[in-house]
Design a protein that fits this description.
Blueprint: H1 8-14, H2 21-31, H3 33-43, H4 49-64, H5 74-77, H6 128-140, H7 145-151, H8 154-170, H9 179-182, H10 184-187, H11 190-202, H12 209-222, H13 225-237, H14 241-258, H15 262-268, E1 281-284, E2 289-294, E3 300-303, E4 309-310, H16 324-356, H17 362-370, H18 376-379, E5 384-386, E6 391-394, E7 400-402, E8 416-418, H19 421-424, H20 428-437, H21 456-460, E9 471-472, H22 474-481, E10 498-502, E11 508-514, E12 528-536, H23 554-568
Antiparallel strand pairs: 1-2, 2-3, 3-4, 5-6, 5-8, 6-7, 9-12, 10-11, 11-12
């Protein structure tokens, strides 16, 4: 295959995992390295399998022969060029001294083709032999890596780690050297997480299910708020059922290790992104400074000194500080990218918390939500309620006020939750008016949410006549079975003959369906008729041990009726 054909290298990149694929790619690149660089450079900047392989090969070529970069614009290859050499350090921890052992596990990872690892002061670097010792430690997943993390600059370690991973991937990601993926969890950082997550999403579709599972362990190993956030997002919106299941399993493992529930882990895993106590961020361009704040959907907004609000940060200009301005612009760009992952999930998580009646102690509520620099922007747009029935809102200064706008403090033993409108009773209208007066827009439908109360007769009845006979399109009924409803029997197997929804006390609202849902049929199927809607301790194909409907949590019942009526309309 002639390298002059610009289509050759991309094809070889896509097939590098095949037999002799890596060798063929290397041979093609060496045949005409300048042309290879011109083909690889545009591919190396994107978060795809092809882009990752291109980056690994591009870096190796430039480290081996930096002069090749002269054939390309500097901006095209700048990120892959060797940095100016930093002098070797001599005061090394014991784990990085001595003659490194020869190992076939690490022979392919030539330190000369990887970035230098800098020490904490960033004025010294690990010598070549110390870097080989580090590679041996990483290959063995040795606990001594912790000493290296303490001794070295964390950003430098993470860049070395990612370059090592890129090199392995460019060689076809040989499974015998899978440690090159696992080591990301030992010395990677939040930047590693952002780079790895898009790959985890696509690997199962490329035959890399096992690799994706190892990558989930990497996220767990890094363990930061950003890593956990991406793990939760993969569990919620992964494209492959097996991947989602493994992400959920990993979340359960991490939560169990910390002695908390997965929901509580999610509460603790929201990054603050370096925001100040007021939930803002200053972008310093030198002569110009901008303040970042957030709207009701947690989309970042840039406020100019004159008060003008814009949706993006201005590009650095010739009068701006040449060091500060690009860094501030990059900071905002990264924040905006991260929030695409975080914002929607957090808003939906809080809406679900309202629906499922999750509650917190006053101290946890204040620490996890009120004073959180990011979540505070959502918290202040909602109405909260104690288990004693007093509703309140959170002010800008983190104090609480009731519906009369009087100061309020929850009792120490109280539980705090998001106020579903069915619980706000006569205060609902007053709250809507108060938020309108303050021009507060809500992140999701709280106060304006449809409410369905049972009549006195319905509360004592065992069946809800008002929904019987409703017909649901198959797709919507099936969607419910995969969302806030379930269709599982006592053994956890798919039932299909009903939709069931559990309330906080363990009672189920059950909608009996005919002709029933199919396990493996999703988009199209027969419309589903609701024969009966009843409540009991466990779902079944017909009412069994049913209880009066008034015993069901009113929020659960209201949401159930809302779902069914909306789906049938």
């Amino acid at each position: 295959m002639e390298i002059a054909d610009g289509r050759a290298l991309p094809v070889l990149l896509d097939n590098v995992g095949a037999k002799d694929g890596a060798a063929a790619l290397q041979e093609a690149a060496e045949r005409d390295p300048v042309h290879a660089l011109r083909v690889l450079a545009p591919l190396a900047g994107n978060d795809t399998t092809r882009g990752l392989r291109a980056a690994g090969l591009l870096r190796a070529m430039l480290y081996a022969e930096p002069g090749l970069a002269e054939a390309l614009p500097s901006v095209a290859v700048e990120a892959f060029l060797p940095r100016p050499a930093v002098p070797d350090g001599d005061d090394l921890p014991d784990v990085l001294t001595g003659k490194p052992a020869r190992s076939t596990k690490v022979d392919w990872a030539d330190p000369a083709l990887l970035p230098q690892v800098l020490t904490r002061g960033r004025d010294r670097a690990l010598p070549a032999n110390a870097t080989k010792c580090l590679l041996n430690l990483l290959a063995k997943k040795a606990p001594e890596v912790a000493a290296v993390r303490d001794f070295c600059d964390r950003h430098s370690l993470a860049e070395f780690s990612w370059a090592l991973f890129q090199r392995w991937y460019a060689l076809g990601a040989p499974t015998r050297h899978n440690w090159a993926l696992a080591q990301l969890g030992l010395i990677g950082d939040d930047t590693t997480v952002r780079r790895l997550s898009p790959l985890i999403r696509v690997w199962p579709g490329e035959g890399g299910t096992g690799r994706a599972a190892v990558a989930l362990d990497v996220l767990g190993g890094i363990g930061s708020d950003v890593a956990l956030t991406h793990l939760f997002e993969l569990a919620r919106r992964g494209n492959y059922k097996g991947l989602k299941a493994k992400a959920i399993q990993k979340i359960d493992e991490i939560a169990a290790a910390r002695g908390i529930t997965p929901d509580a882990l999610a509460d603790h895993a929201v990054p603050d992104f370096g925001l100040d106590a007021q939930g803002t961020l200053v972008l310093d361009y030198g002569p110009r400074r901008f303040t970042v704040t957030f709207d009701r959907q947690l989309l970042p907004l840039v406020v100019e000194p004159n008060g003008k609000v814009r949706k993006s940060a201005p590009k650095p200009g010739p009068k701006d500080d040449p060091a500060l301005a690009p860094a501030a612009y990059a900071l905002f760009t990264g924040l905006k990218k991260d929030l695409r992952t975080i914002a929607d999930r957090e808003i939906k998580r809080l809406e679900l918390a309202m629906i499922t009646r999750r509650s917190w102690t006053p101290d946890d509520f204040h620490a996890l939500f009120v004073t959180h620099p990011l979540l505070g922007h959502i918290v202040r747009r909602l109405v909260w309620i104690t288990d004693g029935g007093t509703s309140f809102r959170v002010a800008e200064d983190h104090t609480y006020a009731d519906v009369d706008d009087s100061p309020f403090t929850p009792a120490p033993g109280a539980r705090v939750s998001i106020g579903h409108p069915i619980l706000l009773d006569d205060d609902l209208g007053a709250w809507a008016e108060l938020l309108a007066d303050y021009e507060i827009l809500q992140p999701f439908d709280q106060l304006g949410r449809p409410v369905y109360r049972l009549t006195d007769d319905e509360r004592t009845a065992h069946r809800l006549a008002r929904v019987e006979g409703l017909v649901l399109p198959y797709g919507k009924a099936k969607g419910h079975s995969q969302g806030r409803w379930e269709s599982l029997d006592a053994n956890g197997d798919f039932a299909g003959g009903w939709l069931a929804r559990r309330d906080p006390a363990g009672l189920y609202v059950v909608a009996d369906l005919s002709p029933g849902l199919h396990h493996y049929m999703y988009g199209e199927g027969e419309d589903q008729k609701i024969n009966t809607l009843w409540a009991g301790p466990a779902p079944d194909s017909s009412p069994k041990d049913s209880v009066p409907l008034g015993e069901v949590d009113p929020v659960t019942m209201s949401e159930a009726v809302h779902d069914l009526l909306r789906s049938a309309s």
